[in-house]
Amino acid sequence: MSKPIQNSSAELANRLITQVIQACKNKTLKLEQPNNIETVCVSHIKRFMERWTADPEFQNQVAVEPYKTIARYGLKVDPEEIRPLWDLKFLKEVGERVPISASLRQWHEFFDESRVCELMQSIASSSSEPRFKAWRERQIARTRSQFKKWLQDTLVHAPVCFELSKGCSVGCWFCGVSAPRLGDIFIYNQENAKLWYEVLELMKEILGPAAGAGFCYWASDPLDNPDYERFCSDFHEVLGIFPQTTTAQPLKDPARIRALLKLSRKKGCLLNRFSILSLKMLNQVHEEFSAEELTLVSLALQNKEANKIKANAGRARERNLNKGEEDNEFPEQGTIACVSGFLFNMVDRSVKLISPCNASDRWPLGYIVYDEGTFSDAHDLKILLERMITDNMPLTVRPNDLINFRRDLKYESLTDGFQLSTKFKTFKFRHEPYLKELGEVIHKGGKTAEDIASIFEKHGVSPAYTFHNLNLMFERGVLDDEPKPKVVKS
Ligand code: SF4
């Protein structure tokens, strides 16, 4: 007898969680011996790449005198062994026959961020709530046709995340989610700790192990909350995973950061991140923390010299608009949102159902808000979440649903059907003249699923067959499910 879907996906998620923790333990064992030759090798190549990416002056110096420069920066790497990383002329000469040294291979295997991302994606997709699981898969199908492949591949579509403060103290000019100034903080007092634990248990009850792919910041910096570590420890206790941390304040309290990194490694967290806002900050971080200490900490290099394009969302988008740059329908990156699920703010006990999109006038923060509400306690929250799931996550098209194609898709009629496309993807529905007519009716808009089924029934097509085809489109994420703008009454 086959197992119920819920159980098998939960088992898979549990296996993945064990795998993540084991992988971390293996790495941690090496990290706890800072003189371990592999640790030294991978951490110093990683540091070389950080400096190389962030600092054009370093690039110039390496090109002229590689050995001296590397010694000056205290890097324990042999420039010859890592030549493919820095010598473009050499790369051109060797073409596809790039020699990969043992140390480069070790570095790549040890610090494989994409592997961590894939594991988290697998855990996130294992929800035991079938309606949530199908809804999230439709969101992923939608974003696959809206985002560049590199962005789509790195999006976890995490099912849940928690803000533990109102706003953020850092105030980055480019903040993609326009975090407001830091306000109240969700302190770990008796009442809040109880609520927190109950909320985590509820998320586990609703989403299963998939909830472990969540994290505890959004338009907030984790270190603004003095009790962040305690919340993370509860998260780990209930959901089995120690949540990943990204902070732009690694220098605020180095002793605290060291303790947090140690705790997170001990609990099996594979990767954390520091946001680096300036070259000066990179210098200070490299001064404060050894390469070995940061082996499992990815540096997000946001300093201007790194020349990284900022996502066109939130404050960066506002700045672009002020400079007269209009939204590009297909930007390099139009969002920093990575949640398709529930976004909590624990201070005001609010929750939103969100999913990433390219920022626009309608969704300036780079995510669609499908629903939102507030709660007073876990019982209240359960009712709210169940209502959101029922309203927003049907498993199939409902008779009264208004059926339209997504507004960003280009509709084209074909001789035996129709196609819908964006710059990145084309969806074809064809090989049947009936589909051509169905496409036309949907394209004209304004009809419910029931209306459409009855139009075709008059021409001998069973309603069941029309619903079957509508459901195919629904699953592929081409039907419009965006909430309609609220009409403001005058
Ligand atoms: S980018 Fe992060 S650290 Fe910077 S203001 Fe936004 S939330 Fe705060």
Instruction: Provide the low-confidence segments as ranges.
Output: 1-5
The overall number of domains is 3
Mean pLDDT: 91
Strand order of the largest sheet: 1-5-6-7
> How many helical elements?
19
Question: How much strand content do the residues show?
Answer: 5-15%
* Principal-axis shape: globular
User: Using only CA atoms, what is the Rg?
Assistant: 25 Å
**Secondary-structure class:** alpha/beta
Helix content: 40-55%
Q: How many β-strand stretches?
A: 12
First CA to last CA: what distance?
60 Å
List bound small molecules. iron/sulfur cluster
* Biggest sheet statistics: 4 strands, mixed
Write a structural description.
The protein is of the alpha/beta class and 490 residues long. The protein folds into 3 domains: 5-110, no CATH class; 129-270 and 309-392, no CATH class; 402-475, Alpha-Beta Complex (Outer Surface Protein A, domain 3). The protein is 46% helix and 12% strand. The strands form 4 sheets. A 4-stranded mixed β-sheet has the order 1-5-6-7. A 3-stranded parallel β-sheet has the order 2-3-4. It is globular and about 80 Å long. The relative contact order is 0.11. Mean pLDDT is 91; it is low at 1-5. Bound molecules: iron/sulfur cluster (SF4). The site of iron/sulfur cluster (SF4) has 10 residues, from loops. GO terms for molecular function: catalytic activity; iron-sulfur cluster binding.
